[in-house]
Specification:
mainly alpha; 192 residues
């Protein structure tokens, strides 16, 4: 007798149940049902579970329902934490240029030009406070000369292969720094 893992049993028997459960839970989460299904399949594969006792056929269905609900809860929590930014997109300044790191366009409204300069000032100030080589790297990345990774690595004297990880750490630090300066949105629901 060949022993199937729960993945094999689910793929054979529980696909329609998963689709129905995901569609029912997705309506309240703001997540696409297909995304919810995919998250449950990943959870199923990562769990490494074995096939349950054939005498108890409700066990895989019960696990599946619990997994769908757990993934829906995670999606709801994630949606509460991820608040969309209501400001203009980065490319909405006059002339189609991104506002961050660029000079305001000549034909821009005075208010837009002032806001662009204020954003640039705040960004430059935060970049200057970054630790280590991060200020140099960020200035090179935001340079109007639009340097390639090879040129930036040559200017900074570091290998091109280490540029990506250093950039990632610097952007993470900059993100945390700027997030601390922005007022956090109020909690919805219960106070903690």
């Amino acid at each position: 007798m060949v022993e199937l893992g729960l993945c094999g049993v689910a793929a054979l028997d529980l696909g329609p149940l998963l689709s129905a459960e995901a569609a029912a839970e997705a309506a309240g989460t703001g997540v696409d049902a297909a995304d919810l299904e995919q998250a449950v399949w990943v959870r199923l594969l990562e769990s490494g579970r074995r096939a349950p006792d054939p005498a108890e056929p409700a066990e895989p269905a019960r696990w599946l329902r619990r997994a769908v609900r757990a993934e829906a809860r995670l999606a709801r929590r994630r949606a509460r934490r991820e608040v969309p930014y209501d400001g203009p997109p980065a490319g909405d300044s006059a002339g189609g240029e991104p506002a961050v790191g660029r000079e305001p366009a000549a034909g821009a409204e005075p208010e837009d030009a002032l806001l662009d300069r204020e954003v640039n000032r705040a960004l430059r100030s935060a970049v200057a406070r970054l630790p280590g080589r991060c200020p140099e790297l960020m200035k090179a990345l935001l340079s109007p000369r639009d340097l390639t990774y090879r040129e930036i690595a040559g200017e900074l004297g570091i290998s091109q292969g280490s540029l990506g990880p250093v950039r990632s750490r610097c952007l993470g630090c900059l993100r945390r720094m700027l997030a601390a300066e922005v007022a956090a949105p109020g909690l919805r629901g219960k106070e903690r």
